[in-house]
Amino acid sequence: MIGRPLPVRDLGFQSTLELVADMPEVVRICPYEKDTFILKAIADETTKAIAKLVARQRRSARERKGAAVRANAISPHKSPQSFPQRVKAPILPAMVKAELQDLLS
């Protein structure tokens, strides 16, 4: 969206995964397959209506295909010990956090 890579190292993180792990109110990290994660944006007051429409659309598509619903097949929580450890705990600027939340919205 901004035309260049995220400055994760300038913000005190080693990777994008570390960055998003530090923002649990903005994005949820869901393990998917070996060494693969799905990042799910967390709806706020301004995006809850859109999130409900998308969820309803997904449910509807699954029902049409006759697929089994596996809502809890993948645990959305993973212990913090499974993520790489940071040397220091940087404080993510509010402006950066807000811009990332807008981007994920």
UniProtKB/TrEMBL annotation:
<protein>
    <submittedName>
        <fullName>Tudor domain-containing protein 5</fullName>
    </submittedName>
</protein>
<dbReference type="GO" id="GO:0030154">
    <property type="term" value="P:cell differentiation"/>
</dbReference>
<dbReference type="InterPro" id="IPR041966">
    <property type="entry name" value="LOTUS-like"/>
</dbReference>
<feature type="region of interest" description="Disordered">
    <location>
        <begin position="62"/>
        <end position="86"/>
    </location>
</feature>
<keyword id="KW-0221">Differentiation</keyword>
<feature type="domain" description="HTH OST-type">
    <location>
        <begin position="1"/>
        <end position="43"/>
    </location>
</feature>
<dbReference type="InterPro" id="IPR025605">
    <property type="entry name" value="OST-HTH/LOTUS_dom"/>
</dbReference>
